[in-house]
Amino acid sequence: MESLDVVIHLAFAFDIGYEIDLERARTLLSGESGALARRRRTPESIQYRPAPLRVAVDGSALALPGGVATIQPPRAELSLFDFGAISLAMQFPVRMDPVALLRLAGALAEPAPLTASARRVVAPWVERLRPAVIGFEDSAISEEYIVFQVGDVRGDWLQEHADWIAGLVRLESGPLSRAEVAEATRLSLSYTPDDVVTLDWAAGFVADRDCAETLQVIEFANVQLLEFRHIDDRLDDRLEAAYRQIRPEP
Fold this sequence. Notes:
By secondary structure, the chain is α+β, with helices and mostly antiparallel strands. It has one domain (about 5-245). The protein is built from 7 helices and 11 strands. It has helices spanning about 20-30, 100-105, 110-130, 155-160, 160-170, 180-185, 210-245; strands spanning about 5-15, 15-20, 30-35, 55, 75-80, 85-95, 135, 140-150, 190, 195-200, 205. The protein has a 9-stranded mixed β-sheet. Helix 2 packs parallel to helix 5 (about 160-170) and helix 5 packs across helix 6. It is globular, with a radius of gyration of 20 Å. The N and C termini lie far apart (about 70 Å). The model has no long low-confidence stretch (mean pLDDT about 90).
């Protein structure tokens, strides 16, 4: 296969407190409300309530594994949600052959170094934002998600390269069995013959040029997963404290 133009989207979600006062945050960071990008067929009822605050940031401190070069400067945007979460979205436009892209996917399977870099990128912004955060607490919990986006591909091409797509969403550089390919590509959606969204637990594949809405929904789902984990941890702590009160240690 020839080299492909691919945009690698990385989303990092962090929880920094109980609530963010978005109006006050706007004065501190000079951000803009980011309504959900929408297509003509998207119902008006599907929208953020309230819309997150979005701020362009310098993400140059965050690079892809192995020093993979980009064909355009990477872009970074920080989104602030009223329920105390923030999300750093990075875009890396690259030109790579499919085999090299699979190797990169395998390297991305261990997100810890990238997450640490993402924390360093958002750290100064979190400090500036702190007066707008109610119940500030910079949680150690994080969630990451990766999307490989291509455009201008035909439906038959997508079908012929299902094993390659499966490797990307599984973040696996080696060959997969037929059963694993079928399982990895099972959760796929298409609107036209030439677009597809395939999602797995840690990564997804999008074949579409007009996909801002899809990417924002994926980013929001990643943030929600973080919040569920954060709530679960808090519940565990409360239950443990209640148990100690009911059954004090001898």
